[in-house]
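Suppose you are handed a protein chain with no further information: no name, no annotation, nothing but its sequence. What can you learn? This example shows the usual starting point.
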Amino acid sequence: MYKNYVQTIFLLLLLLVPISGCGKRGLLFPPEALVPASVSDLKARQIGEDFQVVWSAPSKDARGATLNDLSGFQLFKRQFKTGEEDCAACDDSWKLIADVDKDYPNGVVKIESPDEEVPYGDDFKYRRVTRVGNLFVYTDSYVSIGDNLQYKLLALSKSGGVSKPAVTEVMKKQEPLPSPMIKVEASVTGVLVKVISHSKDLRKGVTYNIYRRKTGESIPFAPLNKTSLTSNNWEDTNVEIGQTYYYSATTVLKTSAGEIESVRSPEVSIVFALPPLE
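A reasonable first move is to predict its three-dimensional structure. Written in structure tokens, the prediction is:
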């Protein structure tokens, strides 16, 4: 009997050997290898009447290793009036507003929206996501003044992994800021940009951003200045003689409800040349 028992155990071990070496890799890699890391730089801000949501693609998986199979993102939003029931932890408070393909972000994004007015389809709303380098930019035009809103983003892998959510702060839509006007002129060291504000519309703590492009270029996503300008006068010293530049500016205000930025001012062009000697 003991001999039969030993033989039975031996046979079971023989059967298990090919299973462990059959080429199936499911147990050779930890589950984190299939899951993208959470997006670390998700931000949202109000620009004019719209909200702009910006993020970059994660380059690592949940273990910290290089991520090679990122497929895209899912962007959610919850929106509520002040005084309404607020439950950030409730799944039904969040609505999917964009399903973004990493390799085709500029394509039309189709999201079901039966509870909203639909401008272009029967039961679908069509929106676009813009990619600027490694940044993804989503513009949300469906927010009313006074509404509170928050965004949540998931990164997805081709193997089916889903990252931990990245979440913005709760923001409240404010009255949009007025756009400034600008004047430009050449100096010995660069181009002087003067921002002209409408004094009756100014709010305490207002600053400015300056944007620039060359002929044939689109308006850049990021301003020239690294931090918002507290002065109405600013000089662009990174210029070339004979080059045409197009400048615009925005009004910026940081509040407890988030950052607000106006739409850009009308562009003003200048061909940079050294001023004549007097």
